Structure formats: structure tokens, C-alpha cells
Amino acid sequence: MAVSLVGTSGYVRDTLRGVTSPNRVTWGLWGIEGILVFVVEVQQHVGLASWMTLTMGFVPLVVVAASFRNSHLAWKIGRFDVFCGAASVLGLIFWFFVNEPTVALLLFVGADQAAALPTVRKSWLAPSTESARAFFLGFVNCAITLMTLRHFTTAGALFPGCILVTDLIIAILVATNVGPRMRSEVQLAHTERVS
Q1: Which structural domain, as residue segments, surrounds residue 93?
Q2: Quick check: 89 and 29 in contact, CB under 8 A?
Q3: Of 95, 127, 151, 173, which has the fewest beta carbons less than 10 angstroms from its beta carbon?
Q4: Positive or negative: CA dihedral 115, 134, 171, 1
Q5: Per-residue pLDDT tens digits for 75-124
Q6: 10-16, Cβ contacts within 8 angstroms, sequence gap of 24 or more
């Protein structure tokens, strides 16, 4: 929980300073998902682990709120973002009504990953608007969570495992600046061919 808070508090700070431009679709849905799961976990008497889930819901909402401080620097929402957001909301609606736990978990993870896609795309297109540190610490957080599991089950490993992979992808895209570099190389190769 501490690793997660360190990473996301730095992200909030960078957002307030105008260093990062969070995608409000991704962060807003992550916040809603975290709060919904927290409520379900409290109803199911999960205990202390539910506080981690609350953190995963509350902090993204703080990120969204911070993004309004420098609204002229906010990431512009496009059709792709709206499509992914709608897919995520649809997944959450199905998750809410499905009575089969494994299917519900798959729907929830699908909704979470659909919410993440706009930020994955943004990390490819404009890595300078993101923070590799926040996502790397999210990766570490999920790795620690997975190491605490005594038995790897779908219920225990799927959600943190998916977040681990997504956070690692985003961290690598941002840290390596691979998207803009590849696009520059492609443009250079195209220019040389045309010349």
C-alpha cells in the first residue's frame, strides 16, 4: 500500500505542477472501479486487504481532481478514449449483474483493461506527458501482492497480474520514449525512400 501511495502521490504532484497530463477517462474509471470493489469487499468482510482497494479507488479520483487545476494542460479526450471508456462502463455494468464469480472477475478485469488502453496509447504517442515512476511503482506493488499469495488462483492472481503487465508496459513506453523514436525512424526511412 505504501509503494502505491508513493507512486501515485508523485503522480498527483506532477499533475498539479503541469508535468503530467493524466487521461481523465482512464483515471476516472480506475477510481470508480476501485471504490466499487471496495464496497463489495466491505460487504464480504474481506478485512484489511480492502484498504488497499480503497486506496486504488481514492487516489485515481484525486488525480482526476488535480487534472482540473491545469485544465489547459489536460489530455484531450478523443474517440478512442470515449470508445474505451464506454467498453469499460459496459463491462462494469455486466460485472455488477453477473452472479458467477469467475465470469464477474473476468468482466471486471476486462473493464479495467479497457479503461487502461487510453493511457497505454498516450504513453506511446506522448510519453513526456506521463510519469514512468508512478507506473513502475504500480508494477512493484502488484509484484509484491502476487508474492504474498499462497496459492495462485484466478481469483487471487488475475487482477493484480493484469495490472502488473499493464503498468510495466506503460512504464517502459514512457521511460524509453520508444513511440516517438520509432515514428521518427519510420519518417526518416520514408523520406529517404522518397528522395
Answers
A1: 2-194
A2: yes
A3: 151
A4: negative
A5: 788 899 889 889 989 888 888 788 777 787 788 889 989 999 999 999 99
A6: 10/131, 10/133, 10/134, 11/63, 11/131, 11/133, 11/134, 12/59, 12/62, 12/63, 12/66, 14/131, 14/134, 15/63, 15/66, 15/67, 15/69, 15/70, 16/66, 16/69, 16/70
Cβ contact 163:142 at 8 Å? yes
Most confident of 48-57, 124-133, 141-150: 124-133
pLDDT 10s digits, 25-60:
999 998 888 888 777 777 766 666 667 777 778 888
Cell digits for 124?
Answer: 506511446
Supply the pTM of this predicted model.
0.82
Count of structural domains, the chain: 1
Helix (H) or strand (E) holding 15: helix 2-17
- Tell me the C-alpha distance between 4 and 26, whole Å: 17
- Residue closest to 52 by CA, chosen among 8, 87, 22: 8
Q: Quick one: cell of 70?
A: 491545469
Cell of 34: 476501485
User: In whole angstroms, what is the distance from residue 163 CA to residue 124 CA?
Assistant: 18
Grid coordinates representing 120? 497505454
| Backbone φ/ψ region at 126: left (φ over 0), alpha (ψ -120 to 50), beta | beta
